[in-house]
Design goal:
The chain is an alpha+beta fold and 172 residues long. It has a single domain (16-165), classed as Ribosomal Protein S5, domain 2. 43% of the residues lie in helices and 15% in strands.
């Protein structure tokens, strides 16, 4: 994350939180990339957060997924992430803002493979009562499915435009 991306400035760009985010990003992406198709290869993913408004991990996962698709890297399916938190200790919120994350309530971040329903990564910011886990997780997964639908439509439209510009699928 850029040192100027948050309201509090960081002195060191490689703090524990950034290292943790890197590890979780690698874990989530490894579940979807077909690494057996790329022997003796290294796939590097670099994400730079310029403005942190909350949900940094989710934004990084979704951006990395789009970048891998655009680069033509073979994947089992998309990896989509979303964060959900509890407002006032009761109401689950999807896509928490930085303000909502810093208010002190527990938040849950999930990265899923939406077609198979597999969970690639699950993390909570703090302890959460067992009665709250299911509704918060359900909201996060619902948010992931919403993001997946939007991204899938945009990607299909993008490749249709590329294909029509290159005359793909036209018979002559």
């Amino acid at each position: 994350m850029a040192t100027f991306s948050r309201s509090e400035r960081k002195r060191r760009p490689r703090d524990n939180k950034s290292a943790e985010l890197t590890l979780h990003l690698k874990q989530a992406m490894t579940t979807a990339i077909k690494t057996d198709l790329y022997p003796k290869s290294q796939i590097d993913i670099f994400v730079q957060v310029l403005q942190s408004d909350g949900g940094n991990y989710s934004v990084c996962v979704n951006a990395a997924t789009l970048a891998l698709i655009d680069a033509g890297i073979a994947m089992e399916e998309f990896v989509i992430s979303c964060t959900s938190s509890l407002a006032n200790g009761e109401t689950p919120l999807v896509d928490s803002s930085n303000l909502e994350e810093t208010m002190g309530g527990p938040s849950l971040t999930v990265a899923i493979l939406p077609i198979s329903g597999k969970i690639a990564m699950l993390e909570t910011s703090q302890r959460m009562h067992i009665n709250h886990v299911e509704p918060v997780l359900s909201e996060a997964v619902r948010g992931c499915r919403y993001i997946y639908d939007k991204l899938n439509k945009i990607i299909k439209k993008h490749y249709e435009e590329i294909g029509s510009a290159s005359n793909w699928g036209t018979e002559e």
